[in-house]
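Continuing the series of single-chain predictions for the mutant panel. This is the parent chain; the variants come on the following pages.
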Amino acid sequence: MIELPEALSRAKELNNALIGKKIVKVLLPTSPHKFCWFQGDVASYPAQLEGHMIKGARGFGIFVEIECDQGVYMCVNDGVNMTVFTACDEIPEKYQLAILFEDQTSLVFQVAMYGSLICHHGNYENEYYLKSLEKISPISSQFTYHYFVSVLENVKPTMSIKAFLATEQRFPGIGNGVLQDILWEASLHPKRKVNSLSKQESQQLFQAIQSILGEMIEQGGRDTEKNIFGYFGGYRTRLSKKTLHQPCPRCQTPIEKANYLGGTIYFCPQCQKNI
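Parent structure:
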């Protein structure tokens, strides 16, 4: 799933791979997906995109947006996988959209659980898209401890730390994935209530957000997510499906998991006690 480190990493990769390329053909879905959403009728996408040149890409929140000339955009969210194929490669049989370029390379979009493939002309008004653009990014210079505390003080006191960090796009791009290592770094259990945090713990959490996101971005995203060339990111997750039951990097206690708030949480029962 695309979260902030992946959004920024995918945008950087797309800029390196696609800028200046001309779209010659757009292939419609070969595998219709119940939970893949488009802006209007996907059958209109070829007419909107073909003939346009790629100007660049940007990542923000849980979105990656490709900009073409003449104000045409292709935006995807967290559930979409993008893969670039060379002229020598065969593209997969099943996809939700494929873009072919003049040099015979291609960009293929595939959705696993859910995702949006939005072709727009600067008129995409999705709530999460707008929040991702408008809210202060956790890697911005505006993301100060003072700002963090002001957000913390304006939520329900009994809200869990997971809900605080990973819902309602309070902090664009922080989701249930990057959350795991952030909370491990801060020695906090995902179920802890925000009103149970001491000042020192809130400072640790703020610092963990900055340091862990910084590491993830610098290393091209997490090792649970693939880049546009099909390789996993370079950041080795401390807590994820890859580390379940393995020794905690800090205390050697086996990592555990649980279902919570509609997703899986991973934690060290020794380092991250739910007190």
